[in-house]
Write a structure and sequence with these properties.
8-stranded mixed beta sheet; binds succinic acid; binds fe (iii) ion
Length: 291
């Protein structure tokens, strides 16, 4: 399977021909990474002082800007906090306009979730297996039920020293699911309801969320799988941008520092080909509805 679908544009406002847009959407939904080697998110001169891991509060690995404007993961306040927030918000706006123009079918259905700034070097950051993003995984979060909705992410490497962001990309979603689904357990729906009602999870977890988390944890915990499954190293250079469905692409981030990232959520029904969604694939493999 080819992993990258490369698009050689260098301007966030450059319009692609309709066929090129259709090919991009098809590549994305088939589980490829859209790669824009020349599409850089240029920092403004006044934003240069933000290129330090000190912006992080030392506990969170990322600084994140919630769609409601709340900034998390930093102890910076006042003028420095505002500068940080404005850079992240600038990326959010750029990424949102870009994806809406790239896949017009998504435009009115894209839900903007968090935007993050990742100023901490990944390599050598300690983490237990299930929190370790240097291990291949699909994205799934215990307290953020997706109920089948897609997770689409835009990444831009803004490293000032030219260091690449190094990813490994593994096998296709269905091959991975066939390995880890048999051992995946669905929890009690009544309990999921209690956690959702108390606000411990942001909404009620569905069977789909239980299975996706089981695939995430199952793959990350399996040393043999991590070592032996075919995987390709990709080095995203500084000044490049890439987009993929991180709930579908098996990915691991091994090294790199200074990336901006925008997350979108999207209903399965907004996809060009909903049958390719993890929800529909897992429902087919499991033989039942999962939301
Ligand atoms: C991840 O989603 O696992 C991390 C991606 C990155 O920060 O490059
Ligand atoms: Fe991830």
């Amino acid at each position: 399977m080819s992993i990258l679908h490369t698009i050689e544009i260098a301007d966030w406002n450059e319009a692609l021909a309709p066929e090129a847009r259709a090919q991009a959407a098809d590549a994305l939904e088939s589980g490829m990474v859209l790669y824009f080697p020349r599409l850089a998110f240029a920092l403004e001169e006044k934003e240069r002082p933000l290129l330090t891991p000190d912006v992080s509060n030392g506990r969170a690995k990322n600084v994140s800007l919630k769609p409601d404007g709340e900034l998390r993961g930093t102890s910076w306040t006042g003028e420095k906090g505002e500068l940080l927030k404005s850079m992240i918000a600038r990326f959010a706006g750029t990424a949102t306009r870009f994806v809406a123009a790239l896949v017009p079918a998504y435009a009115s259905r894209l839900q903007r979730a968090s935007t993050s700034y990742r100023p901490v070097e990944i390599a050598g950051r300690p983490a237990s297996a299930v929190y370790d993003d240097t291990r291949l995984h699909v994205d799934s979060f215990p307290s953020r039920p997706m109920r089948g909705q897609r997770i689409l992410r835009v990444f831009s490497n803004v490293n000032p020293a030219g260091a690449p962001r190094v990813w490994h990309v593994g096998e296709d979603f269905e091959s991975m699911a066939q390995k880890f689904l048999p051992a995946a357990r669905e929890g009690s729906r009544a309990w999921a309801h209690v956690l959702g009602t108390l606000g411990i999870t942001k909404g009620v977890r569905s069977r789909y969320d239980d299975l996706m988390l089981a695939l995430h944890d199952g793959a990350k915990r399996d040393d043999n799988y991590q070592r032996n499954v075919p995987q390709t190293e990709i080095r995203f250079p500084s000044g490049s941008t890439w987009i993929c469905y991180t709930d579908q692409v098996m990915h691991a981030a091994l090294a790199g520092q200074y990336v901006l990232e925008q997350t979108f959520h999207l209903e399965v029904g907004a996809m060009v080909a909903p049958a390719r969604s993890p929800l529909r694939v897992l429902e087919r493999l499991r033989g039942r509805a999962l939301v």
